[in-house]
Amino acid sequence: MLSKQDIKHIAKLARLELTDAEIIKYGSQLSDVLSYVEQLREVNVDGVEPTAQVTGLEDILREDVIEDWDKIEREDSLRQAPELEDGQIKVKRVLN
């Protein structure tokens, strides 16, 4: 069972602000999860190859192709933009 201090430390690392009630609730749940992981560690996996993907799906990549729009399509699209700068759509900065 994890201590209240352990839960507070984990919450701080995860940048979570937990109330005392949440610390008790999530502490119990996290302890249960860790207990289950301990059970899994007891399983003999000798000779079992590591598996990262079990569905057999593969990424399908396509070549990036630049397709020019005709003048009317371009103008219609730009007309819908809330703000333009030098003929391009101006957006808010996404990095701080």
Sum up the structure in keywords.
mainly alpha; two-stranded antiparallel sheet; 3 helices
CATH architecture of the domain at 4-41: Orthogonal Bundle
Helix content: 40-55%
Strand order of the largest sheet: 1-2
CATH fold field value of the domain at 4-41: Histone, subunit A
Approximate strand percentage? under 5%
Radius of gyration: 26 Å
Distance from first to last alpha carbon:
40 Å
Structural class by SSE content: mainly alpha
List segments where confidence is low: pLDDT < 50 over at least 5 consecutive residues.
none
Q: Largest beta sheet, briefly?
A: 2 strands, antiparallel
* Helix count from the secondary structure assignment: 3
Sketch the topology as an H/E string, one letter per element.
Answer: HHHEE
Number of beta-strand segments: 2
Q: Kindly provide the name of the CATH class of the domain at 4-41.
A: Mainly Alpha
pLDDT averaged over residues: 90
Gross morphology is: flat
